[in-house]
Specification:
alpha/beta, globular, 16 helices, single chain, eight-stranded parallel sheet
């Protein structure tokens, strides 16, 4: 009886919401009480905005609705209205369901499994990231994605379905699709029309599969030619160029109602260590960052970026004790307070070597939430996924993550899902032939065939 009631309530909320206004790895790539890592519980500079876009019809893109999601204020405060559908949804979630929204996980294989079903039905994860080794063909990928969403249909919140689809060497799409050029090749053309068109093609490919989040575009300025991880994934070594083209790609993806995630804040372009393998140390101070690395991110924030991914970089002149991915100095003080970002913050994959070789994934995950983050990305290893979820659950139970902080972080996630109209409805599949035709036409126009 309880289960039937929950399903009924979920259906009602779905109707209400519908009517309301990471990289090369994995097969191809406020202030408050002190937490366990010694950092304060911190949020951003703004709170949920009662005038924010509550969604809309599918013909009009949400245009940066994540900027209005905000963190840092209790969702029950004056930043929301009593009839706020997102607040109502939040208040109906159990603690376990709220904790689930804090994580986005990966999986093994090319089909649903007992592990994926447990992540969905026991741990209520907020979403999945898929890598090249999860995708064999268009038909198989569509079956996988629809199968996972079907397993989630008894839950109250739909799933993020995400990939790293940057173009170039970081692509997860099946081989049936025309290859997209590298960002470096796009940068050499220096055309916002081209980069916008590329964003639209990427968005169409993902949307056709029912995918709703793309970890792109890369906004790193490739200032170090010996960088082992960025290179041609960057539009170039000029911050203004990266800003222009990155914003255009972001807007193109968003127009297809796929959430773009700009990365890797505060800038991975001047590193000599691949964070998939070890922890890079960047000794730049704020003056240098403001002149170069932060420029594209500031431009994206002004263009109402929805989600920012935080890199695994140790930046001693900002925070000598914590990598950027769980540093209050980076996430709250710099990104939220100085740059004014009020959207959703997600970590880079916590199973990368930069974290896995140096820190406990549980403590790092809790630290990221306390530092001002909303979502922890755990791209690999079922055991580590469960370890992170358990650590977050324990932190909520013992008060390390207060109820206020938990609600604040989850509210922003729910608000973004609502704004983009995310559902678990099955997708029909992309029109591969038409997308390829349009892609060839676009690339041909700029001599990139």
């Amino acid at each position: 009886m309880h289960k039937l009631l929950r399903i009924s309530m979920a259906c009602v909320m779905t109707v209400m919401l519908a009517s309301g206004c990471s990289g090369t790895h994995g097969g191809n790539n406020s202030a408050g009480q002190t937490g366990a890592n010694g950092q304060q519980e911190a949020g951003g500079s703004g709170g949920p905005n009662s005038t924010a876009n509550q969604g809309g019809d599918s013909s009009s893109p949400p245009a940066g609705s994540g900027q209005e999601a905000g963190t840092g204020s209790n969702p029950g405060d004056s930043g929301t209205t009593p009839d706020d559908p997102v607040l109502k949804q939040l208040n109906q979630l159990t603690t376990e369901e709220k904790v689930g929204q804090l994580v986005l996980v990966g999986m093994d294989g090319t089909a649903t499994s007992e592990e994926t079903r447990e992540l969905v039905q026991k741990y209520y994860v907020g979403g999945f990231i898929f890598y090249k080794n999860n995708i064999d063909s268009t038909k198989q990928a569509l079956s996988l994605f629809n199968g996972i969403k079907k397993d989630n249909q008894g839950n109250p919140v739909p799933l993020w379905m995400s990939v790293d689809e940057e173009g170039g060497r970081v692509s997860r799409m099946p081989d049936e699709f025309v290859d997209m050029p590298t960002n470096r090749a796009i940068g050499r053309k220096d055309s916002t029309d081209l980069s916008h068109g590329i964003g639209q093609i990427l968005g169409r490919e993902l949307a056709g599969f029912g995918l709703n989040m793309d970890f792109a575009p890369v906004l790193d300025v490739n200032s170090n030619p010996n960088n082992p991880v960025i290179g041609d994934r960057s539009f170039g070594d000029d911050a203004e160029l990266v800003s222009r083209l990155g914003k255009a790609t972001m807007e193109g993806i968003r127009e297809e109602r796929v959430v773009p995630v700009v990365k890797h804040f505060p800038g991975h372009g001047d590193t000599s260590v691949d964070s998939h393998i070890g922890l890079p140390v960047v000794n730049h101070d704020l003056a240098r960052l403001r002149k170069l690395e932060l420029v594209p991110f500031q431009a994206a924030v002004k263009d109402q970026a929805d989600v920012v991914m935080i890199a695994h970089l140790l930046m001693p002149k900002l925070d000598k004790d914590h990598p950027a991915s769980f540093s209050k100095a980076v996430i709250t003080d710099l990104l939220r307070n100085e740059l004014g970002f009020k959207g959703v913050v997600i970590s880079d994959d916590m199973t990368m070597g930069a974290i896995d070789k140096n820190y406990s994934i549980g403590k790092a995950s809790v630290g990221a939430i306390l530092a001002g983050g909303n979502i922890i990305l755990i791209g690999h290893d079922y055991a580590k996924e469960k370890e992170a979820i358990q650590a977050l659950t324990d932190a909520v139970k013992d008060g390390t993550i207060s109820e206020e902080v938990l609600n604040d972080r989850v509210y922003a996630v729910l608000k973004l899902k609502n704004a983009y109209g995310i559902t678990d409805e099955p997708a029909e599949g992309p029109d591969v032939d038409q997308i390829n035709k349009d892609a060839r036409s676009l690339l041909g126009k700029y001599g990139l065939k």
